[in-house]
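Renewal narrative, Specific Aim 1. Our central claim is that a sequence can be written position by position from structural information alone. The example that follows is taken directly from our test logs and has not been curated for this report. It begins with the structure tokens describing the chain, in the order in which they were read.
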């Protein structure tokens, strides 16, 4: 299974996502904003980073750019419910900034499993 880093400022959402990914057999670490994401990744590199886009301190778009600038050997799944802007618009920008795949919140466990299968083809990603 894969090592996955969840970066999201919503504690409840992170907890649910962590439980879901753990049940799928993945090893999960967390960061509560973009500011702490790079340090968490350096401490424990992950094959996949699930990155929320709208966060305080340092937003996901800026954090995606940091990962790409530093040539992090990870896939990035950008997620967003949109907030003040349409989620589709910000998710398109995330792809331009280097996200490998995007998902609009809320998403189903099936949507997540399909994204993992696409992003981690060499892994047995579970269902």
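The sequence written for that structure reads:
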């Amino acid at each position: 299974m894969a090592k996955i880093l969840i970066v999201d400022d919503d504690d409840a959402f992170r907890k649910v996502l962590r439980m879901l990914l753990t049940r799928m057999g993945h090893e999960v670490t967390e960061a509560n904003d973009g500011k702490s994401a790079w340090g968490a990744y350096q401490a424990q590199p992950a094959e996949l980073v699930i990155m929320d886009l709208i966060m305080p301190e340092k937003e996901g778009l800026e954090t995606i750019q940091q990962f790409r600038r530093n040539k992090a050997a990870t896939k990035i799944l950008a997620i967003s419910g949109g907030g003040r802007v349409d989620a589709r618009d910000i998710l398109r920008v995330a792809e331009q900034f280097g996200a490998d795949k995007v998902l609009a919140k809320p998403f189903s466990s099936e949507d997540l499993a399909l994204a993992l299968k696409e992003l981690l083809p060499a892994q047995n990603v579970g269902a």
